[in-house]
Amino acid sequence: MTALVEVRNLSKHFGGIQAVDRASCSLHEGEVVGLLGHNGAGKSTLIKVLAGVFPADEGQIIVRGEEAKFASPRAARLAGIETIHQSLALAENLDAPSNLFLGRELLTPWGTLDVDRMEHEALEVISRLNPNFRDMKKSVREMSGGQRQTVAIARALYFNARILIMDEPCAALGPAETRMVQDTIRKLKAAGIGIFLISHDLSDVFEVCDRVTVMKNGAVVDTVKVAEVSQEDVLAMIILGRKPGKE
Prior knowledge:
The protein is of the alpha/beta class and 247 residues long.
């Protein structure tokens, strides 16, 4: 099956620092791949190249079977790749519809803001993710962490993202909100969305991921199926750079 996105032997350096060293990984439709590693392992740089923030020095990005080169985050978004940053990049003083369409507002035939249509469209996409969402007109600063995640994800989905990069989506959330975000991830999987999940919490990773790709010192240690390894195996990959089954 053709991958939604495949990274082949990608390298990126900054001066004398080799941030990513011939890294390869892939993501398929309806799959969640955890991208793991200590700070400085290279995962953030790899994701930023994939999201169009940095150009690659070497290697390829293959999107749905065709090579792609992203000169900007906008180019990556046009290819269906959206990043849900840990900060969520939401305007705290605005409500859900206003955040959903921020910078991409819908207009009436007379050139004015089509508020009613934006509210209707926002309600439709947010309700698919969370049927219990009832705070459409509440400002983001008044929302819970789980509700904020829903708004950020809905914004990506409305604009036809098929590949999501989620950076620590459950960080600083309580147990109930973490379960809500995990349920949302499962709904995205069921809809055929592919997700790269960056997380330091192995319990979250083992709850929702199908595979994990572990990086250390800029290189990929290995990619393994979650069902075939233990958390201790993955910790050894992260800390020691050791593949499962290797002494």
